[in-house]
Amino acid sequence: MRIDIISVLPELMESPFQTSILRRSMDKGLVEVHFHQLRDWAINKHKQIDDEPYGGGAGMVMMIEPIDKCISELKSQRDYDEVIYLTPDGVTLNQKIANSLSIKNNLIFLCGHYKGIDQRVRELHITKEISIGDYVLTGGELAACVLADSIIRLVPGVLNDEQSALTDSFQDDLLSPPIYTRPEVYKGLEVPKILLSGNFAKIEEWRHEEAVRITQEKRPDLL
């Protein structure tokens, strides 16, 4: 998988990709992540990539020309499955979206900034618009990191135990059941006896029942 991220602040995203699972995915050659400074495609010597909105109003708008030039250049080099714009008015990211994107080969992420992008960019290039929640950030960079993390961890071979991702919350529209590890008793709190029984069929039944119970309590909208 290759992910190309277009941003006016690519340095903001470098750290998350230098550690833990994201780093290992690249070290294994399973994933490539490339950052592109949008100002490299700016239209003048001042590296301008934003301008005032037509019709007036507060804030600045990301201009169409630098974005179009950047995306067009990337598209000339390979075929992309999706060109994704990170924006508060996109569809809210969920596990199903992450699952579907994790089997793609080439993705472009466009990080919004200021008041957003010229609408014509959406019409020319954007195939999917994604939000990570009903709130506004200063830019799409942190959202791009969240989206990338949710996708990359699902790529086969990235996690040491691939079954782990299949039992995550939301994979079956259920939250995860309670989990425990050593010691068996701590400050009077005991691990449920069923988990110590060795009866794996009963353990899975218990876990499913607990997942349903917890989902009913915390996120009944998922059921």
From TrEMBL:
Q: Which reaction does it catalyse?
A: guanosine(37) in tRNA + S-adenosyl-L-methionine = N(1)-methylguanosine(37) in tRNA + S-adenosyl-L-homocysteine + H(+)
Q: According to the UniProt record, what class of enzyme is this?
A: transferase
Q: Which GO terms describe its molecular function?
A: tRNA (guanine(37)-N1)-methyltransferase activity
Its keywords, alphabetically, are:
Cytoplasm, Methyltransferase, S-adenosyl-L-methionine, Transferase, tRNA processing
Q: What is its EC number?
A: 2.1.1.228
Residue span, tRNA methyltransferase TRMD/TRM10-type domain: 1-223
- What subcellular locations does the record give? Cytoplasm
Annotated CDD domains? TrmD-like (cd18080)
Q: Could you name the domain of life of the organism this protein comes from? A: Bacteria
User: Which residues are S-adenosyl-L-methionine-binding?
Assistant: G112, I132, G133, D134, Y135, V136, L137
The record's Gene3D superfamilies line, in alphabetical order, gives:
3.40.1280.10, tRNA(m1g37)methyltransferase, domain 2 (1.10.1270.20)
Which InterPro entries does the UniProt record give? Answer: Alpha/beta_knot_MTases, tRNA_m1G_MeTrfase_C_sf, tRNA_m1G_MeTrfase_TrmD, tRNA_m1G_MTases_N, tRNA_MeTrfase_TRMD/TRM10
What GO cellular component entries does it have? cytosol
Q: What main location does UniProt list?
A: cytoplasm
GO terms of biological process kind: tRNA N1-guanine methylation
- Role played: Specifically methylates guanosine-37 in various tRNAs.
User: Hey, which family's this protein in?
Assistant: Belongs to the RNA methyltransferase TrmD family.
Subunit structure of this chain's protein: Homodimer.
Tell me the protein's name.
tRNA (guanine-N(1)-)-methyltransferase
Underlying gene: trmD
